[in-house]
Amino acid sequence: MADSDIFQKRLVTARKKRELSQDDLAKKSGLKPAAISHFETGARKPSFNNLKRLADALNVTADYLLGRTDDPEGFAEADVAFRHGFEQLSSEQREIALDFIEVLAKRSKKE
């Protein structure tokens, strides 16, 4: 399956999973309904900015939409936390946060 086919399929799947029409997704993402239709049919490819808007509106990662991961919600919450919290921290606080995440990941592997 071509990368563009994966994007189209995943965009439709994520939209339907969220029980959104193309119009609903357009409103939620700030895009035009015609753009959503073009992306889903493969007539157009989204810009980086529009890809982010779609991922945010669908609460999935851009990696999922692009076929780089099979988990639609995998790190969507982490991405939001990063955008709204991590960047506000000092470099020392960021280091502590990353160390904490590493400890949690190691614990998770043991369980």
Polypeptide structure, described:
The protein has helices at 3-17, 22-29, 33-41, 48-58, 62-66, 76-84, 91-110. With 111 residues, the protein is an all-alpha fold. The chain folds into 2 domains: 1-74, lambda repressor-like DNA-binding domains (434 Repressor (Amino-terminal Domain), Orthogonal Bundle), CATH 1.10.260; 75-111. The radius of gyration is 17 Å and the shape is elongated. It starts with a helix and ends with a helix.
How do the helices and strands line up, and which of them pair or pack?
Blueprint: H1 3-17, H2 22-29, H3 33-41, H4 48-58, H5 62-66, H6 76-84, H7 91-110
Helix pairs in contact: 2-3
Which architecture of the largest domain would the CATH scheme give at its second level?
Orthogonal Bundle
Compute the gyration radius: what is it? 17 Å
CATH homologous superfamily assignment of the largest domain: lambda repressor-like DNA-binding domains
What is the CATH domain class of the largest domain?
A: Mainly Alpha
Helix content: 55-70%
> If you average the pLDDT, what whole number results?
85
Structural class: mainly alpha
Sketch the major β-sheet. none
Distance between the termini: 36 Å
What's the count of strands? Answer: 0
Strand content: under 5%
**So what's the overall shape?**
elongated
H/E element order: HHHHHHH
Q: What is the fold named in CATH at topology level of the largest domain?
A: 434 Repressor (Amino-terminal Domain)
Low-confidence stretches: none
State the domain count: 2
Output the number of helix runs: 7
